[in-house]
Design a protein that fits this description.
With 87 residues, the chain is an alpha+beta fold. Strand 1, helix 2 and strand 2 form a beta-alpha-beta unit. Strands 1-2-3 form a 3-stranded mixed beta sheet, with no helix packed on it. The chain is 37% helix and 11% strand.
Length: 87
């Protein structure tokens, strides 16, 4: 999605990051190779997968189980060229 926003901004004559900053989520490899490269929030995908499998397993073993909890995993910002702090 962030690459689409980047392309749309450039198509409309906006300068990234001077006129608009773009921040993606999950930081696909594409974020690193487009220009300007896209700043993105990263999360530990291996841990996301592990937690997902744990919950699926619990639901298979206990089909009536209601899982009512929020899980917040460690995440971090990877700053690249598409973001410029505003003063």
């Amino acid at each position: 999605m962030a690459v689409g926003v980047l392309n749309g901004a450039l198509d409309h004559g906006l300068r990234v990051p001077d006129d608009i900053s773009i921040i993606g989520f999950d930081g696909s490899a594409v974020a690193e190779i487009v220009r300007p490269s896209i700043t993105s929030m990263q999360q530990p995908m291996d841990e996301v997968g592990r937690k997902s499998v744990e919950y699926i397993h619990q639901l298979i073993v206990h089909p009536d189980l209601i899982i009512d909890e929020d899980i917040i995993l460690q995440h971090w910002l990877v700053e690249r060229e598409s973001f410029k702090p505003r003063v």
